[in-house]
Amino acid sequence: MQSSVNKSSFFGFEEGWGNRSYFAYYGQFQRESTAIVGIEVFFLILLWIWGVVGNVLVIIVVISNKGMRKSNTNLFIVNLSVSDILFTMGNPLIATTRVTESWIFGRVLCGLMPLLEFVCGYVSIWTMTFISIDRFRVIVGHRSRKFKLGTVIGMVAFTWISGILFFIPLAIYFQIREFPFKDGTATLCTLVWPYVSKTFNVSYPYTAVGISLFFIVPLVIIVHNYSRILHFLWKKRQKLNKSLRTSSEIGSFSTISRNGTNNVNGETLRRRTVSDCEASRDQRDLNVVRFLVIIVVAFIVSWTPIFITLSLVVYDGNMEVPTFSSQIFILTASITFLNACINPIIYGTFNQNFRRGFKKIGQSLKLCKSMRDIDTSIRCSSTENHHPSKDGNHDSGIVLSNVNAEGQLHADMHQEEKF
């Protein structure tokens, strides 16, 4: 099969389609600068390590804290972290392909990697959607209306199953194509949709439905829920302020009244106490909503470029001379990978319980290192001194003190905290 190359696209013949172009999503040929390749590889590997380590820490914080495990929001966040970890798992393969130019990992991984990436993104946005629904039910509705554990597990399972079912065509139609190139063969992992007719391209309706289910529908639900929550909290605060002003007026009137002064002042104090409790609870709810909105905004900012890029790839593929570069695709994909990395930072910055959990993990790691250092020094001391003390326990105080410290730290990690 004869072909010509345009750095990121090859031309060839496909049954039904006739002559057509094939876009090299992960590879690029005839690159002029090796420095750019090095930068791409560095950031892809950095984002992979950062995403895995950060999200593993998030999971550890939630699992190790009984109080945080009781929160539906935290259980959904664990699901988010799992999807973020899996989402970055393809980075080493992409980094390798940027170096080798050709795809070297075979047909199975060629289909599996885009499937995993899109399913994980789909799971993330719908998990955020279910979080907004849960927060709406709890804050705007009655607080006892939060989802039960079985319901949360069912919702999580639904996101994964529905995502796999919708994006399974990507695993089928991302295929290997080989082209003669220079003195060898160029191998591409590229998307080849089945041919239907000259007037109908299956990629158009699939992309439109995908963007709707992946982006538009969940965002409409999220915006609706959080706007309703914010409006509810604002109206509630207005009522509380009005109630406090009324109580103050009654209290002022009671100071000039001769009868019933103690009863009126007692009622005023009771109203203020209740109002303070409700105001504190509403402020906590507002902080949680603000924290969740930041996560959603970060997702939108990170994923919008890749959707625009994929739309341009589809459009460019129908041009007589494709000009779109896979370098832009990798850049926007890296921005998307960055979303998996910044989520743990958002948790630690805007949520006190996660911040405490991260600090405790850091303290635990420091303690483990110090205990290893002490153990090493004891071994060295024992080697140099072949005559231990009479009671043979000259180092027991050090060891016991560190064991006690570790036990205390372990107990602290299991104290109950709410989201």
TrEMBL record:
SUPFAM superfamilies, per database record: Family A G protein-coupled receptor-like
Principal cellular location given in the protein's record: membrane
List membrane-spanning regions.
Answer: 41-63, 75-94, 106-131, 152-174, 204-227, 291-315, 327-350
Topology in the lipid bilayer is annotated as: Multi-pass membrane protein
Looking up Pfam families in the UniProt record yields: 7tm_1
Identify the stretch annotated as signal peptide in this record: none
Limits of the G-protein coupled receptors family 1 profile domain? 54-347
Give Gene Ontology CC terms.
plasma membrane
Q: Note the CDD domains from the entry.
A: 7tm_classA_rhodopsin-like (cd00637)
- Where does it reside? Membrane
Q: Which GO terms describe its molecular function?
A: neuropeptide Y receptor activity
Under what name is this protein listed?
Answer: Free fatty acid receptor 4
What organism does the UniProt record list as the source?
Lingula anatina
Q: What is the lineage of its organism?
A: Eukaryota, Metazoa, Spiralia, Lophotrochozoa, Brachiopoda
